Amino acid sequence: xxxxxxxxxxxxxxxxxxxxxxxxxxxxxxxxxxxxxxxxxxxxxxxxxxxxxxxxxxxxxxxxxxxxxxxxxxxxxxxxxxxxxxxxxxxxxxxxxxxxxxxxxxxxxxxxxxxxxxxxxxxxxxxxxxxxxxxxxxxxxxxxxxxxxxxxxxxxx
Amino acid sequence: xxxxxxxxxxxxxxxxxxxxxxxxxxxxxxxxxxxxxxxxxxxxxxxxxxxxxxxxxxxxxxxxxxxxxxxxxxxxxxxxxxxxxxxxxxxxxxxxxxxxxxxxxxxxxxxxxxxxxxxxxxxxxxxxxxxxxxxxxxxxxxxxxxxxxxxxxxxxxxxxxxxxxxxxxxxxxxxxxxxxxxxxxxxxxxxxxxxxxxxxxxxxxxxxxxxxxxxxxxxxxxxxxxxxxxxxxxxxxxxxxxxxxxxxxxxxxxxxxxxxxxxxxxxxxxxxxxxxxxxxxxxxxxxxxxxxxxxxxxxxxxxxxxxxxxxxxxxxxxxxxxxxxxxxxxxxxxxxxxxxxxxxxxxxxxxxxxxxxxxxxxxxxxxxxxxxxxxxxxxxxxxxxxxxxxxxxxxxxxxxxxxxxxxxxxxxxxxxxxxxxxxxxxxxxxxxxxxxxxxxxxxxxxxxxxxxxxxxxxxxxxxxxxxxxxxxxxxxxxxxxxxxxxxxxxxxxxxxxxxxxxxxxxxxxxxxxxxxxxxxxxxxxxxxxxxxxxxxxxxxxxxxxxxxxxxxxxxxxxxxxxxxxxxxxxxxxxxxxxxxxxxxxxxxxxxxxxxxxxxxxxxxxxxxxxxxxxxxxxxxxxxxxxxxxxxxxxxxxxxxxxxxxxxxxxxxxxxxxxxxxxxxxxxxxxxxxxxxxxxxxxxxxxxxxxxxxxxxxxxxxxxxxxxxxxxxxxxxxxxxxxxxxxxxxxxxxxxxxxxxxx
Lengths: 157, 742
Ligand code: FES
Ligand code: FES
Prior knowledge:
Number of strands of chain A: 5
Largest sheet of chain B: 7 strands, mixed
Largest interface: A-B, 55 and 61 residues
Strand content of chain A: 5-15%
Number of strands of chain B: 28
Shape of chain B: globular
Distance between the termini of chain A: 43 Å
Oligomer: heterodimer
Number of helices of chain B: 22
Largest sheet of chain A: 5 strands, mixed
Order of helices and strands of chain A: EEHEEEHHHHH
Bound molecules: FE2/S2 (inorganic) cluster
Strand order of the largest sheet of chain B: 9-10-7-17-14-15-16
């Protein structure tokens, strides 16, 4: 039995502690907002926050979540999180998604990035690119991702 | 996606096949099943119209029940079913916009859902449910307008009956019927009565100048769900008791198992069964079925398998290239002909060889398909570009009638053609696995899920191609003779599509885009070597390579006679090709080409190409940094006739351009060594990232002509425009994708 905390809720699961968090979320807890893209930390689709930091859940084992807090797209965009709400709103304003499959990961990376900035600091274009470079979008929504992250940063200032 | 078909060819070919199918039992099973479906769809519509008919109002028989397409709830919500797969292109918003326009719906109350393999959802032109060839808006524009108009007429009739007034005294506005003396009824209040009325034969469509939804930049209907993790895709389907299967596929295409030791795999917690299953193209594999993806994957890793590869071909990219070069030495089957005598006497000559690698589609959502079996019935959940074809394949594998198969089309995380294989490969495999699991006593739904590595190594690539050109021209750039050879595997030969795509041994999907708007005397011949690497259409199909060849060679000729590449192209168009001229002109004007001075180290590049009946021109700015080409800015000029949703067109152009840019980047190639695919994931198969993204502007040429598609046409001209800019900087033409500046 392993214990984990997801979006503020404690769960006990009978899953091998070596199982990546991604599959505990998706297959054990039925939380499918977090996506599987590569399984090898190469695309960012599975990004969640572990104690506020963006991690690739496809390569992070359940055992690493012991005593820490996992936050997923479902909680980040439910309105309670100020930064997540700003990112979500900017994503809607710019109609970022196409197929949408990568977007949970994009939003989780963008949110962690904006949270990592000192209050009020506006990121440069290069900083936004660097922060988002680990997230592939095969649909090519990059121009709108750039605009949306910059917009969310302005809204939070 | 589907090749750029002659607009008359497919319907004619299907009619022909249909006629034959009735009497000829010798046609292969796949084809017969396809025919049945095609027949059902075609007959439901009364005819296989050609495009002009599909686009002209009133030409389609009103046999489609509006209720299959539009449902209005008592609260006024209008749900529109789409007869296409939504996989990023925005059709899930575009088709409802078209229907809502004629329905006079309140757009804020419009929702959307996917159709199924039900015959109602066949393409009105092709008679089968398909998504490809940038056809969705083009072929269903009039269909959805008429559906909306019919539903509106029924609502009006219902209101007239309720108020006992003449229907001509009524009008509609944003989801409401307005009567004389200010009376009002919301659509939701009328829907039930309206749907019980007969479907009107004749309806009048709006004058396009009265459009208030079509042409307006609209947000996607799925934007909210897709920005909050709440959108379900095929991979998210969860049925009670469902298990997950991961498949060990042979390392070499088509190989079979020599020995299986599954004892360690079976011992893994969560593994329910290990099954030997037939795979695509005569291969064999082992499916590990478990209560989740992770245990299934662990189980697969614990298998000890030996493959018998003795009987299968082991393709090796290097040898393959040598073989293609040898083939290119002699002319192949003839597509175009012209007098090649001037080649020897022309004052200027140019010889060029181009090489294009295999490419994986690499859609973000790994392939998956969930299958639930019962006696005499099968249900399938998958993101399919051709549910009609897939349902037929499912029926075949499971020994069912097509009517006993239900395909639930799922939102898909990209596809780019991969979800439209004539073999229905991943759907068939999922059915084989579900069947074997059921035989092994597991009477539950099974989801087969591919890993990224499975997808990269699993084939169905854009074929590798080699082009050779010998061109003779004069000092003014007039082309006197152009001798061209293409070598590459045929995508459609031997498939149901080959019947109408292959003529005189030439697969039209390999040559589309050649010559294009340039009236040059060209001899074009083609070789289609047969290899066991599975190939498939890949966003914009033949134009992925032909546009590169044409547009870089035209540019090179212009440069070599010191002509401006834009002026040179415009000269070749003459007074023909108004859409090419308009698209190019708008890109030129908006980019500042020829007027604005670029910073040192940057150069302009231009390309224009028509595919799928839309024209896209790019003017780009590029430079070379640390030996790597860098794309800084792109200005697009687009001609796709009437635009339904400008936002969607803009997104499609950008997205297709990013995929075109991906083709240029170092590492964007699938190669084989001794039969084994060398790439496995995004670390060794490059796709563009945000840091590769240039500044981007899209400008659309206004037009009122019936819309043409935009899913693919933004891709082909990107790579050649980029290459032309780099060639200007380095003085050396780029003739290989991905780019190699060495
Ligand atoms: S799925 Fe985790 S980074 Fe790609
Ligand atoms: S929106 Fe499709 S992969 Fe990003």
